[in-house]
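Handout, page 2. Input:
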Amino acid sequence: MRRFAALFLLLLLAACAPRQTAPAEVQTQRVYTVQSGDTLYSISRRFGVSVAALQAANDLEGTLLRAGQRLIIPGGATPEYWNPVGYVEEGMASWYGPDFHDRPTASGEVFDMYALTAAHRTLPFGSIVRVLRLDTGASVTVRINDRGPFKKDRIIDLSYAAAREIGLDRDGIARVRIEVVGYEP
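Output:
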């Protein structure tokens, strides 16, 4: 009987104790660790929050991130797959090859200049992109596996093999239209 009374008293005291809960804004926040190749814009799309909200929640003044950095995702947003199929963009394309061959890409795979791959600043890795050269009508389909280009006037960097398919290896740069036609995780 004493045990029952002690247990009852213990449960009664526990029920009466004040509960400490975090404020609502803390309860709805998630933490995300930045991966190699992530941009503030891609994280914004993935979690369905604005870039401004990410900057405010993390006291960021610019948009530069580093791999391993931890970001607070405001509003309890959950990651969503951004389906890039149908995305279209026009601009200048360039190519890269020998200096980067056999080196790791932003996605972690090894760059093969003879594979039909490309670098884009924000499209998810695994996006399948049709690249149409506007002056000649030549096209090639590539898979995004790297980040870049790092020149502001360019929208995509093609591997040597992809550039060769549309004659870009000779010209260096050309105006293109890119369209996401698929996705391979």
